[in-house]
Amino acid sequence: MGDSKDEDEKFQEELIGLDPHDPETKAFADHLDKMKRQRPGFTVEGYLEGVQDFADSANRTTGHQRLVAVIVVGLILLGVLLTIWFALGDIIAIIF
């Protein structure tokens, strides 16, 4: 997420009184960085960053939340496969 000096300078006011070497403080600084990051809107890069954040979050979770993330991804893939299947069927019907 960048150099630790940059994060300390960027979130100096939010991290007053916290140990900069504490793992929870670093995680909080990463969370603040994600919340304040400006993504390019309506671009492929912006969407892919959102997918990357979702994948990172899904990999960190366990139990019920991980199951829900796997189901969401499965439904998305099922929708893509069905769309391709029906499109190929229409293309083949038009050609022959």
List the helices and strands and how they pair.
Elements: H1 4-10, H2 23-36, H3 44-60, H4 64-95
Describe what this molecule looks like in 3D:
With 96 residues, the protein is mainly alpha-helical. The protein contains four helices and no strands. The longest helix has 32 residues, at 64-95. The protein is elongated. Keywords: Membrane, Transmembrane, Transmembrane helix.
Comma- or semicolon-separated keywords:
mainly alpha, single chain, 96 residues, elongated, 4 helices
Structural class assignment: mainly alpha
Rg over CA atoms, rounded to whole Å, is 21 Å
Oligomer state of the chains in this structure = single chain
Work out the helix count.
Answer: 4
The averaged pLDDT comes out at 84
Largest sheet: none
Q: Got a strand count?
A: 0
Q: What share of the residues does DSSP label as strand, in percent?
A: under 5%
Uncertain ranges: none
Give the helices and strands as they follow along the chain.
Answer: HHHH
- End-to-end Cα distance: 53 Å
Bulk shape: elongated
User: How much helicity do the residues have?
Assistant: over 70%
Brief synopsis:
The chain has 4 helices and no strands. With 96 residues, it is mainly α.
